[in-house]
Amino acid sequence: MKLSKKFYQSNDVVQISKDLLGKVLVTNFNNQLTSGIIVETEAYRAPDDKACHAYKNRKTERTKTMFEAGGIAYIYLCYGIHHLFNIVTSTEGNAHAVLIRAIEPIENVELMLKRRNFSTSKPQLTAGPGVLTKALGITTSNNGLDIMKKNSPIWVEDRGVEVPKNTMIASPRVGVGYAEECATWPWRFRIKNNRWTSNAK
DNA sequence: CACGGGATCGTCT
DNA sequence: GACGATCCCGTGT
Question: What is the pLDDT of residue A82?
């Protein structure tokens, strides 16, 4: 039920981004489990994708994580505030990753509310890449973590949630205006009519 | 509801 | 020294 090497190390990051819809992202920090269904993702793919941090296979202290074999976490700080969670895919040397953009809360909503300083549950709790990590307790200190490993505090499960193809919506990625022609690539995926996705643009 | 700006800091030039 | 793979809150309608 935990996704394994075979899932993460395929070379088609766009397909993996679609396949992740309906899978369940789980964290367990300090013996406190929280989880949610992945309802929105984005694909990033070096070397040709200008929106990807590793465009042209640019390898730096930050991006070197993306070049590792699939199945590890790539987490970085955005705008000095938000911790963005990606899953590295493909095999070693291919810098591909899927950004998790929104989840539908399942387990331990109370703890997620507390982490977000919310009093009641609403879509803004976990709709958006920077806020779902806060709700799940994920930070940049988890960068490089092997999420396939036993006892990893972060992992993804298949719980048999079916997401029919005709309920998946593809659209351009957000916040990547600088990526020129790549900014229009329809590499953002979401589940149709799901109220837990971040706002459409 | 749309829009605009401030927050805040690691990363790369 | 500039700028984000964002979010939140204030203002105006």
Answer: 98
For residue A26, what is the domain's CATH number? 3.10.300.10
The answer to the question of residue A200 being in a domain is no
A159 CA to B4 C1' distance (Å): 42
Q: What is the pTM of this model?
A: 0.96
pLDDT digit string (tens) for A142-155? Answer: 999 999 999 999 99
Structural domains of chain A, count: 1
Say how far apart CA A125 and CA A196 lie, in whole Å.
9
**Which bases of strand C have any atom within 7 Å of the beta carbon of a protein residue?**
3-8
Could you tell me the residue range of the domain that residue A47 belongs to? Answer: 5-191
For A35, phi then psi, to 5°, come to -155, 165
Q: Distance, angstroms, CA A84 to C1' B8?
A: 15
Give a yes or no: residue A39 inside a domain. Answer: yes
Residue A198 falls within a domain, yes or no? no
Tell me the pLDDT of chain A averaged across its residues. Answer: 96
